[in-house]
Design goal:
The protein is α/β, with parallel strands linked by helices. It has 17 helices and 27 strands. Helix content is 29%, strand content 18%. β6, α9 and β7 form a beta-alpha-beta unit.
Length: 711
């Protein structure tokens, strides 16, 4: 990861005061002109100060190959500016218009079976198509020339959710670009054949033209070919991002450029930590996925986004006010969740909170997706909740520009391990890298311990405890960094299916976990994956699923913290910890789930001297996130329960709450005017959030874990 050192944030028009951004995707082209005035009136009422505009407007802006229609966009830009609403202007390239795909069907992507992805949805274009790029960049150039000096413009929005539907294209354009990418990566065919292990199954290449994307084959394609194609596909989209950005920065050097990431997808498609250096500020879209860890995942993704952004303020470009339209069952949000979800992102560093979308569509595929103004209109609980959130965000203006306070513990979230660990032909197809990392995060939340979710490329020495779950792909350099970290006094925790292959997906030989064997003081001869429904009982009432390891303890300094009591590994070590000077390296060899990880993690954190900053009564019931700026700290206390939680044992000025009170500082009832479920008598409302403004407390000195400089 190359950190973006040129971070630039929104400069509000007309010298606007410090404020958090609040708004939505706005699609005025879907509505008659008379609706626009009503929209702007309601935006002002709700406290909206920014909208994303023109995202899916290519066909409206360029009705034919040789005609343009900018008049409607001119008018809405002027109207928004006249009402003090800034514009994050999209380049409108996300969906090609019908005239382009009819004239040039060669821009349409192909799937691995050779089927064309036809128009009718969105993102039906090849990231590597020179024809698409020619037309798309002509549109970007026209947009930059026309609106580069418009006073409403505060940011450029490249394309939209790059790669959401077209990340993997197997066309001839992709094949040609893939070969070029491989030539740059390996230099010659000898190096590629070695990296891909082409001696297996008679796959040795004698010419570059023989290499193809991993299309549908008789059996599993070469695993390194698959891995490199995924790396290439992320890079191809990044290259397209750069192409649009170069035009925009050349035309408008003072206007920041971004695109909306999708950190929460659960699909390892784009390497966002690698993309971060190519935007002026990070933006992300997040949608809640129902389930028992839904709220934990929201926090996890916001946390990860913040650390992809290098701790700098970022933009929540999209989330939902209520139900979405694309899940099997689209559940509405419960009272309080709209504000709680939004403020959790702010707690983790977002300086702008926006939704998809402003006004709920009356037609099209997303007509049942919630919005700030629902089908019911302004006389609705939804719009009242939106307006209350706008009021809260205004009160939080002092938070603007502050950064998340670094935690003492971190979870390493490694994109390469994520991609490689979930490929085919593995000991089990049930391993889920994202879920394993989320389970550790949930356990930390339950213990009330703050942790950062960081890319592996992060400076590791700034953390007392590092948790590296499922670090399947581990380079020699990466193993060396972990070794240096532990020997310098850091405390490492890793898990099953770690240290298995190198960067080429070649197995480390000599026993698992490869280059971590000596550090951990263990050697594993054989994996022991479990069948669906099977379990392995451990000491202390713990139960493992999914996986076990046949562990041999190889070092007298390695202590066994728990052993298997049942199953094929009965009597063998299940959880180990090896001390090295002031540091340690622990290994967990089975999936314990987030509840099972809690006692294990509590023991490991205690040994490292890391604990919760919350009073004991709040731990597990409240999530704490801290932002800091100068001499100030802002403590975000997020109620993880459906009950009111008494807020005792903490001092500080009550800066804001959600639900919103008519007066945050009057010490009275805080019920948003509804009389049901507000914050009373120092309690945090069910599914509520309280924000305290406190004087900054000094950070606990850290041991110099490794030689890396701290951020």
């Amino acid at each position: 990861m190359t950190e973006n050192t040129t971070h630039r944030w929104i400069r509000w028009p007309d010298g606007g005061q410090q404020q958090l951004g609040f708004g939505a995707d706005y699609n005025p082209e879907q509505w008659p002109r008379e609706v626009w005035d009503e929209d702007v009136r309601l935006m002002r009422e709700a406290g909206v100060n920014i909208v994303s505009l023109a995202i899916f407007s290519w066909a409206r802006l360029q009705p034919t190959a040789d005609s343009w229609d900018f008049g409607w966009l001119d008018r809405i830009m002027d109207l928004l500016h006249a009402n003090g609403i800034a514009v994050d202007l999209a380049t409108a390239t996300a969906s090609p218009p019908p005239w382009l795909t009819a004239t040039h069907p060669e821009i349409l992507p192909m799937d691995r079976e050779g089927r064309v992805i036809w128009p009718g949805g969105r993102q039906h274009w090849r990231p590597t198509s020179p024809v698409f790029r020619e037309h798309a960049l002509a549109l970007v150039t026209a947009m930059a020339k026309r609106y580069g000096t418009h006073p409403a413009l505060v940011a450029w929005h490249v394309n939209n959710e790059l790669g959401c539907h077209n990340v993997y294209d197997y066309s001839e354009d992709a094949a040609l670009a893939f070969r070029g990418w491989l030539q740059h990566r390996y230099g010659n065919l000898e190096a590629l054949n070695h990296a891909w292990g082409t001696a297996f199954w008679s796959q040795t290449y004698s010419g570059w033209e023989q290499i193809l994307p991993p299309r549908l084959a008789a059996t599993h394609p070469n695993p390194t070919q698959q891995l490199d194609f995924k790396r290439f596909s992320s890079d191809a989209l990044k290259d397209y991002l750069r192409a649009e950005s170069e035009i925009l920065r050349s035309a408008t050097p003072d206007v920041p450029v971004t695109t909306n990431f999708m950190v929460s997808t659960g699909i390892p498609a784009m390497d966002y930590a690698d993309w971060a250096a190519d935007v002026d500020f990070v933006a992300n879209d997040h949608y809640v996925r129902p389930g028992p860890q839904a709220m934990d995942e929201l926090s996890f993704s916001a946390n990860r986004t913040s650390n992809i952004a290098g701790g700098k303020p970022w933009f929540l470009m999209e989330h939902s006010t209520g139900a979405v339209n694309w899940q099997p069952i689209n559940l509405a949000k419960k009272p309080g969740e709209l504000a709680r979800d939004s403020l959790t992102h702010v707690a983790h560093g977002a300086d702008a909170v926006c939704f998809f979308q402003w006004r709920q569509s009356s037609r099209g595929a997303e007509k049942f997706h919630s919005a700030m103004v629902p089908h019911a209109g302004e006389d609705s609980d939804m719009f009242r909740s939106v307006t209350e959130l706008g009021h809260t965000l205004k009160q939080l203006a002092p938070v603007t520009g502050s950064r998340r306070r670094r935690a003492r513990a971190a979870i390493i979230f490694d994109w390469n391990s994520w991609v490689a660990s979930e490929q085919d032909s593995h000991p089990t197809s049930r391993f889920n890298y994202h879920q394993e990392a989320l389970d550790w995060y949930s356990a930390l939340l339950a213990l009330g311990v703050r942790a950062d979710v960081v890319p592996f490329e992060t400076e590791l020495g700034q953390y007392d405890v590092l948790i590296a779950p499922g670090l399947y792909l581990l380079t020699a350099d990466g193993a060396g960094r972990l070794n240096d970290y532990v020997h310098a006094g850091g405390h490492l925790v890793t898990t099953y299916f770690s240290g298995i292959v190198n960067e080429h997906d070649h197995a480390w030989l000599g026993g698992y976990p490869g280059p971590l064997r000596e550090l951990l003081g263990i050697r594993i001869q054989e994996f022991g994956p479990l069948a669906d429904g099977d379990t392995a009982e451990l000491d202390h009432g713990l139960t493992g699923t999914l996986w076990t390891d046949r562990i041999d303890v190889t070092d007298g300094a390695t202590e066994v913290l728990a052993s298997y009591k049942t199953g094929d590994q009965a009597g063998r070590a299940a959880i180990t910890r090896r001390r090295t000077g002031e540091g340690s390296a622990a290994y967990v060899s089975t999936r314990l789930g987030h509840h099972g990880l809690e006692p294990v993690l509590a023991q490991l954190l205690a040994a490292a001297g890391v604990g919760s900053e919350l009073p004991e009564a709040l731990r597990g019931r409240v999530e704490l996130a801290i932002r800091e700026n100068g001499d100030s700290e802002f403590w975000f206390l997020v109620n993880r329960t459906a009950d009111a939680v008494p807020l005792a044992g903490l001092d500080g000025q009550r800066l804001a709450d959600a639900p919103v009170s008519t007066d945050m500082n009057d010490g009275g009832t805080n019920d948003g005017g509804t009389g049901d479920g507000g914050t009373r008598d120092g309690a945090i409302a069910p599914r509520g959030v309280a924000i305290l403004h406190r004087g900054r407390t000094p950070e606990r000195p850290r041991a110099p874990h490794g030689t890396e400089s701290t951020r």
